[in-house]
Design brief:
single chain; alpha+beta; Protein Binding, DinI Protein, Chain A; 49% helix
Length: 92
């Protein structure tokens, strides 16, 4: 009986897990920018995703990259999500 209870709890936790959305900023991004991105993304996507903002010390340049885990997106769905995120980041 205990095994059945444990299995039910595990299934409920897995069904409640949100995907993890990662924003990778370049190494030259100021910490203030990272905090602003974290606030914007948290407000806009926080209900749907666990949002993680990183300053990637191995990356140079100005490009911001996105990753998502625990979600199964096809290329069209991913493009729509990227457009949505870029529009969020471009808001003043």
């Amino acid at each position: 009986m205990d095994g059945l209870k444990y299995q039910n709890i595990t299934l409920k936790l897995n069904s409640m897990a949100k995907p993890i959305f990662i924003v990778r900023l370049p190494s030259n991004a100021p910490h203030e920018m990272a905090n602003n991105v974290k606030e914007k993304m948290g407000r806009a996507l926080g209900d749907e995703y666990n949002v993680l903002v990183l300053i990637d010390m191995k990356r140079k340049g100005h490009e911001i990259k996105f990753e998502c885990y625990n979600a199964d997106y096809n290329s069209e769905q991913w493009s729509v999500l990227e457009e949505r995120v870029n529009s969020i980041l471009n808001q003043k």
